[in-house]
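S.,

Sequence below, as promised.
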Amino acid sequence: MAFTGKATYSDGTTFPELYEDVSDIIGIISPFETPLLDHLGDPQRSANSTVHEWTEDSPLNNRVRRTNYTQIFTATVEVSGSQLANRPIGLADEMDYQKQERLRELIRDLENCVINGVPPKSNPQGDASTRRTMKGITSFLQTNVFTSGQDGFPAGEGAGSNHLTEEQINTALRRISENDSGSVDTIVVGGFQKRRINNFILRSHGCGESSARFRDLVSTYKSDFGVCRVILSRWVPPDTVLLLDSSRIDVLPLAGRSFGFKKLASTGDSESGRLIGEYTLELRNEQCHGMIQGLEAY
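The prediction came back faster than expected:
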């Protein structure tokens, strides 16, 4: 090869004969984790109607029927013919990648609605101008809803007496146990309340001279009322702690309507399709669950 006199170390990548140094790893920067859905797992059955109902009974009361509604989650995927013909960095197929990304978004939205969903007041079943939405956990809970310093519930710490304490957790667990036959096994919180729960162990936690690691983490909370797994979910309201019996909660797809991809007719020079899923929440015996609200969150 003839001598050119070019010094690549000084002129960088301005010469066309040099390869671009681009990693084939794509970093996902948007949140997509769904810790509560992962904890609950896949249901063993499906809903058979957009109006989903179940029956609850008590030896001292008549049977009652509870209702929730299915909600459609959908996102469109469209990729141009040029993009399909190109060779993108880090991808084997642009259409498959876009389907994967939209599915992550929809499952993330599903967890948000499972926690915070509110059905329309005027027409819960929806119509041409009103979207049908499911009722979420926070909307279902009515019996065991606790607020710091109110109705005999212990006050919290801090200047506003609303910082979460271990006494409040145990009082809520005790009252839920007294109200119904359920057994709370799951505590779901946002980041701020998770740090408060972690602080429960600080006063009794020691670090020896020979220890090179300090652990400040509570993933399981054990009390007189059972063992609870502590789950961190970004979709829980920051001032709220959810106390749930996971054996009485199911997230059900409408029969034949679990998340899937439906290809649409080509429009011009592009390929398109739609990801669709329809789900509802079945929360049985809401007296078996509880919620602490109005806590300091910042």
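The domain at 142-204+216-247+287-293 is CATH 3.30.2320 (hypothetical protein PF0899 fold).

Coffee later?
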